[in-house]
Amino acid sequence: MTTERKAEASLWHRLLETRLTRRTALGSAAMTAAATALPLTISQAEAVSNNGGPSTVDPQKVKPLTMPPFRAIPVTGADAVTLPAGYRAQVLAPWGETFTEGGREIGFNHDYVGFFPIDMLTGGTSSTEALLTINHEYVNPMFVGGDTKNRTPAQIRAEMEAVGVSVVRVKKEGREWRIVPDARNRRIDALSTMELTGPVRGSSVVKGATMVKGTVGNCSGGQTPWGTLLTCEENVDGYAKAWEGSGYDPMHQGWVTEIDPFTPEWTPKKRTAMGRFRHENVAVTVAKDGRVVGYMGDDMQDSCVYKFVSRGKYDPANRAANLNLLAEGDLYVANFGNGSWVLLDYDKNKKLQDAKGSDGKPLFASQADVLADARASALAVGGTPVDRPEDIEIHPRTGEVYVALTNNSKHGNFFGQIVKFREAGDDWTATKFLWEIFAVGGPQSGFASPDNLVFDPYGNLWMVTDNSDLSTNPIKAFHGNNAMFFMPTEGPNAGKAYRFAVGPVDAEMTGPVWSPDGKTLFLAIQHPGEDSESLDKLRSNFAAKPGTNVPRPTLVAIEGFPGWKA
C-alpha cells in the first residue's frame, strides 16, 4: 500500500513562524519559567526519566539541578569519543563480538539501548548487572560481506542476521563492564519468528498472515513499565530489492515490535494497533486512569506525530496481563494548527471513509487499511506534517512532551528544533494540547539536527544530534562531528545547549540510557567511518579489532557521573 495524498508542506512553517514571533515577543526564558511553574499533577508511576528505564530516585522528590555536572567541551573532528575532564568511555559489545553459547555475534549499527536491571521483575533496580537490549538499525554492505554491488544469498543472509536486536547480559566488575554468559543472551533478527497482533493480523493487507518473519530497520524504541522492549521499525521498504529472493515482505515490517528480554520463549509481537510508518521511538507512560499511552514520531520530512492509548489498564501486580496491553487501543494524530488529537478510526471518522486517492478510488476500506498506511490516514484527517519528528520523551517533573524535529532540507531547515506540548488537564489521554518551541538549532545555539533525547531525574534534557551529511550543508562550519548536549529545561539557562560529548568521524551517538543510579551512561556509536570510499580508504578506525583498521559500531559505557542525589 502506498501513500497517495501529498502533505501540505508549508503549514508547519507558518505555524513555526507564528510561535517564533510570539516567543521573541515574550522572551524565551520567561515563557519556559512560566510553563514549568504550572501545577504538577503527575506521579512517579505515570512519568519517568531515563527513557522508561528504572531510576533509584523519584523525579518528583529531587531538588532541580540545572547546571551541567561538567565543563562544556569545544567542537572537534577527532576520530574518538571526546569527553570532558573527569569522564572516560569504555567500549562494550562492539559489532562482531561473540556473546551467546551458540556463537552468535553482536549485530551491526547499534541504535536504541534498553537497560533492564537483572532483578527488575522482583522490584529491584540493580545498577551493576542488567540485560541490555541493543537495536541494530541497518548494515553497510562494505563492512558486512564486503560487496556493495552483487549480493549473493550468503551475503544477504549475513545482512539479515546482522540487523534486529541483541539481548546481552552485562555486569560491572570494579571499574569495567563486561558481557557475562546467560541463556537469555540472544539475537532477534530479520529471520526470527514474529506474531502480528491487533486489527491488521490476518487481514488482506498482510495476505492473511498471523505469523511473520523478522524485525528490521530497528531505530530507537522504548521500555514499558512491565519490563519489555518496544523496538521501532523505521526504514524498511528498501530491503525488498536489496534482499530479493529472501522472502522479505515490507508489509510485515514498519511496526512497533514488543520483545520480552527476560523470556526467550515469548514470541515477539508486532503491535499493529500502533500503526505502520517510519517509527523512531515510543515514549511510554501510564495515564491517570491506568491506560498506557505511547507517543511516536514518523521519521520522515513532512510527516506527523502520533499518540496511542491502550484500551486496557496497567496492573503493576499482573505482568502476564500487561503483556497484552498493546494489542488493542486507539491511534491519534496531532493537529498542531488547533492543538488537537484526531482519532484514526475507520468506523468513527468519516474523513477516513470518504478519503480518495488521485484515481478517485477509496484509500481505505477497513481499520486494517487505516493502520497499514498511517501516514496517508493522518494526512486525510488533517494531521500536521512537521520537520522529521524523531525522538519524543516525557518530562519527568512536568509531564510535558518534548519532540525532536531533526531538520527538513526540503524547506531549507538544516538545523531543526525541539518543541514541547502539554496535554489538557495534565491528562495524557486528553484530545487537546498546547505547544511551544523549546529550542531552535543553528549557529546561535551551537547545535543542529536534534535526534535522540533522554531526561535525567532533575528534568534536564540530554540530546544527541544527527547531522548525517556534514559535507554538503551549512552545519559543518560550526558543529563539527555529531555531539551530545545537556540542556536545562527550567531556570535562566533553559534551552541553552552545553556540549558534553563528541562522537568519532561520520558517526552518530544514539540510544542514551543511564544505569538506575545515574553513575554510568550507555551510548551507542553508530556508523563510524560510514562515508569511507572503500576498505582501503577508511575515514575512521574507531573501535577496530586489534590488528585491523575497520571501524566498528559499538556501545560505550561512560563513567564519571556523580550519580543521582535525592
Task: Give an overview of the whole structure.
There is one protein chain. By secondary structure, this protein is mainly beta. The protein contains 9 helices and 30 strands. The protein has helices spanning 11-26, 28-36, 153-162, 239-242, 319-322, 350-354, 367-372, 374-380, 476-479, and strands spanning 88-92, 110-117, 129-136, 164-173, 176-179, 186-188, 193-197, 211-213, 218-223, 229-233, 256-259, 269-271, 279-286, 291-298, 301-303, 305-313, 329-335, 340-343, 386-387, 389-394, 401-405, 417-423, 433-440, 450-455, 461-465, 483-487, 498-502, 508-514, 520-526, 554-559. The chain has a 6-stranded mixed beta sheet with strand order 8-7-12-11-10-9, with no helix packed on it.
Features:
566 residues, six-stranded mixed β-sheet, five-stranded antiparallel β-sheet, 9 helices, disordered N terminus
Helix/sheet category: mainly beta
Low-confidence stretches: 1-9, 24-47
Average pLDDT number: 92
Determine the number of helices (DSSP H or I, runs of at least 4 residues). 9
Reported for the largest beta sheet, the result is: 6 strands, mixed
Radius of gyration from the alpha-carbon trace, in angstroms: 22 Å
- Which band does the percent of strand residues land in? 25-35%
Question: Span between N and C termini?
Answer: 51 Å
Q: Strand order of the main beta sheet, please? A: 8-7-12-11-10-9
Shape: globular
Helix content: 10-25%
Number of strands: 30
